Please model this.
Amino acid sequence: MLKRILIVLALLVALAIGGWFWISQPDKARLSEQAVTGRTPQLTETRTESFPTVGIAKPVGWADGAKPIPAAGLQVAAFADGLEHPRWLYRLPNGDVLVAETNSPPREGGGITGWVMGLLMGQAGADVPSPNRITLLRDSNGDGVADQRSALLTGLNSPTGMALVGNWLYIANTDALVRFPFTPGQTKITAKPEKIVDLPGGGNHWARNVIAAPDGKTLFVSVGSASNIAENGLEIEGPAYTAQTAAEMARASTKPGRAMIVQVFPDTKKLRVYAWGLRNPNGMAFEPRTGALWTVVNERDMLGSDMPPDYLTQVDFGAFYGWPWNYWGGYVDKRVTPERPDLREYSKRPDFALGAHVAPLGLAFASDAKLGDAFTTGAFVGLHGSWNREPKSGYKVVYIPFGDNGFPAKDAKPVDVLTGFLASDGKTTRGRPVGVITDATGALLVADDVGNKIWRVSAK
Model:
């Protein structure tokens, strides 16, 4: 009898191991990374995963003298090194460069989810404590290397975005938009922060970006979702996601929520929802011809290595971009409950697919770039790189050609500008690009939060 019980137990254990092995197998991409890009990307049937594909490139840093690979006609060198997790960049009118040395705040919660999140962050080199600092870099002799460095602001709370409006420097902390009195040329700020608006903290996506409107009267702040597909409840994503009527939506429009871009009115310290249904918007920039606001967005996970594409899109006031119920302009995510078929027809299709799971973060238009005729009218995008695709995608800076109408060209595809972050074996990475800006000379600066450097790409 005991022998039979042991045999049954052994069979159950074998079945459990086999089942775990089956569900944990990575979903390998059937399409190339390039196929899922452009204005009309190649979309396939989704492949719902019970266990996420985990494919994180191990960070190894840059060996002596090693550096990324620029596109033909360009060259690259380190603008600054020895930084602590540099993620975001901002150029001041006098040419000084601000860099947000930052990382996620301490994660709440434990259990299996917390353990898995900690494991993934550790493998990606993202488990270091946040320096919570804005550092000022100055190239005093114009040789393309920062030779002066000072801690402009310390003691912040996982800051990302920065914007100068008049004599105020705005900082987007993870939980609030604050500002400090500031005059370009200063190398240290000692004033206390003035809070403008609170922002939702916690959750999966902690980084908050801020950009000033061209007229300087308002600011736009991006806030990512607290989850993948609202699996923890719609309530924590904000009132916009539980509203059922026009009246409820009107009331929700004056309250900060997740997965959206909000417009802030600093004089009255009020805000409104500008656009929603954006799972994790990060980089924002104004297209120089039309003056329209654009953003890059990280789409949802666990629908396979090919779906859905992360994207670049114009942001229209009042527009809904589908999250969590829909993606790419109306494709239904059947995992989300309760369903909202009434919102499908209102889901705006993004303007340009960047590839599946490439994790776009940085965005800068090329209006003042001086990198040659091939890079004059489009947008630069920093692709931080995938953690849940096999083979890995992203880990580079690309350029999206735009037409004279202020939109990506009809047959445009991403053009590699800076590669070599991901090793040829696909198993290790020397760095991961994040924020991108142009410097005062028209060169492109790229923050590398794993390599702890800022790279400067210039014309030969």
